Amino acid sequence: MSGQGHSTQLEPAVDNCHVPLITAPPDGPVDGKATTELQLESDHSVRLDNLGPMVVNSDGTLSRIANWQHMTEPERERTMRVLAVRNKIRLEKQQTNEIQ
């Protein structure tokens, strides 16, 4: 709308105020779920099976399946079979890329 005196420059939403970029986590449960605090010593191990399997992404990063706890046992078994094959292929590809 040129010629009508309108400015195309955006005004800041808050003037002269400090606005934190992120907020502090809430005290207590996160997303309504209870959290567990673990005290670890160097000679102890922790199993995180309830979080589900690690997924090797195509770029080599790792993630987890978000809905693992809501899957039925047959769904988990199928997912594990598929992930085992896919993760193996992706890890081999990553190792091949590192060698080259």
Automatic annotation (TrEMBL):
The organism's place on the tree of life at top rank: Eukaryota
Protein known as: Uncharacterized protein
